[in-house]
Amino acid sequence: MPAPPAGRPGGVSLVAWAVPGIILGLLAGAFAVFVGLLLLPLWLFARASGWLRIIDRYGPLPKPAGVRSYWQTIKVGGVRWPLGAVAGISERGLYLAPAVLSMPTGPLAGMSFVLIPWHEIRRVGPGRIYLSTPATELAIGNPQVIAITVHDALYEMIAPFLANVPPPPSPMTP
After folding, report:
1. Is 155's pLDDT higher than 80?
2. pLDDT on residue 170
3. Which residues have CB under 8 Å from 82's CB, separation 6+?
4. pTM exceeds cut of 0.70
5. Cα(76)–Cα(60) distance, rounded to whole angstroms?
6. 71: which strand partners?
7. What's the mean pLDDT in 111-127?
8. Based on the domain organization, do 81 and 120 belong to the same domain?
C-alpha cells in the first residue's frame, strides 16, 4: 500500500479536507453580515436622532429596578421612534431607552437606559410627533443637548415632577 501524500493526513482527499473550512468560513461571513445589517442601522439611527449625544451626557445605565416602564412613540431630535422607546418615571428623573436595547437579552442589553434628571428639563412646550397628533416637547440640558417630544399621556405622568420648569417664551413676546 502506498504511503499517503504529504500534507493530507490519513490520505484524505484535498476536497474532503477543505470543505469543512469553507463551510465554517461561509457561516462566519454570513454571521458577520447579519450582525452588520442589524447593528449598522441601529448606530445610524442613534447618530441621526441625537441619541448618542444623550448617552454622552447622561450615560448608559442598567434598567432601573422598581421603575414601571412604558412603550412609547417619541421623537428624539427630528427622528420619530414609533413604539421604539421605553420610558420610565421615578423621583430621580425620566428614564429612556430605545426599545430594541431594553430587551432582557441581547448583545447590548443591560446598559441601555439613560436617566435624565428632572432639573435637566429646561423648557416644556407644544410639539408634534405625527402631523396631527399633539404632543409635548421637552428641551433637555443647559445648554440644550436635544429636544425630546413625548405624547401628552406620558407628559401628564411626568408633569408633577416638572413644576418648576418654565414654559417656552411666547412667539409674540419681544
Report:
1. yes
2. 58
3. 73
4. no
5. 16
6. 86
7. 85
8. yes
Task: Please state which of the ranges 1-5, 48-52, 116-120 shows the lowest mean pLDDT.
Answer: 1-5
Closest residue by Cα to residue 133 from 152, 146, 148: 152
The reply to whether 37 and 60 lie within a common domain is no
- Exposed/middle/buried for residue 125 (C-beta within 10 Å: 0-12, 13-18, 19+): middle
As a whole number of angstroms, the distance between CA 136 and CA 128 comes to 7
Task: Calculate the CA dihedral of residues 45, 50, 51, 54 and round it to 10 degrees.
Answer: 170
Asked whether residue 174 is domain-assigned, the answer is no
Query: Amino acid letter at 89?
Result: I
pLDDT band at 110 (very low <50, low <70, confident <90, very high): very low
Rounded-to-integer distance, Cα 138 and Cα 159, Å: 11
d(CA 7, CA 69): 61
Q: Residue 148 pairs with which residues in a beta bridge? A: 76, 138
End-to-end CA distance of the chain: 102
Q: In which domain, by residue range, is 36 found?
A: 13-48
Mean pLDDT of all residues belonging to the chain: 78
